[in-house]
Known about the structure:
Layout: E1 13-14, E2 18-20, E3 24-26, E4 29-35, H1 41-46, E5 48-54, E6 60-62, E7 65-67, E8 70-77, E9 80-87, E10 99-106, H2 108-113, H3 122-134
Antiparallel strand pairs: 1-10, 2-10, 3-4, 4-9, 5-6, 5-10, 7-8, 8-9
Amino acid sequence: MGPQGPSGNANVWGSSAFTVSSWTYYSNTYSGTFLDPDITPAVAASGVVEVYKQYSDLSWTNLPDINNNVATVFNFYNGGFKIFINSLDGSTTPAPGTINFRAVVIPSSVRLANPTVNWKNYNEAMAALEAAKKGTSSAQ
C-alpha cells in the first residue's frame, strides 16, 4: 500500500444560468466572450467544458445546437470561452436576442473517474460534479 494520494478535486465548477442579451456581430456571426478563471491551463489542455442553452420551454440542450438554419457553438481556452451563433448556409442570421446559458468545467481527473456520465446531459453532469465535490464517484 502506497502513501495516501491528494484529496478530491475541488476544481469542478457548474455555473448558475447566465443571460446573454448583448452580442457582438461580425461577418454574419454573433458572438459573446466570457472570462472564466476555472478554465485553467490544465482544463484547457485535457479537461472538458460543456455549455448548455435554455429554450423557451425551459429545457436545456448542450452545444453545439442546431435549430432550423441556426447553429450555436462555442470554444474554450485558458481563462474563458466564446459562444458563436450563425446560419448554416452563410446567410445573415437575425439577432439572437436574450438567451440563457449554463457552463460546466470538468477537470480531466473528474471526467476519467466518471466514465459512464453523459457530460452532454446537464443533469447527469451536475450530479457527477456534486459527487466529486463530496469526494465520491458517480461511476456505476
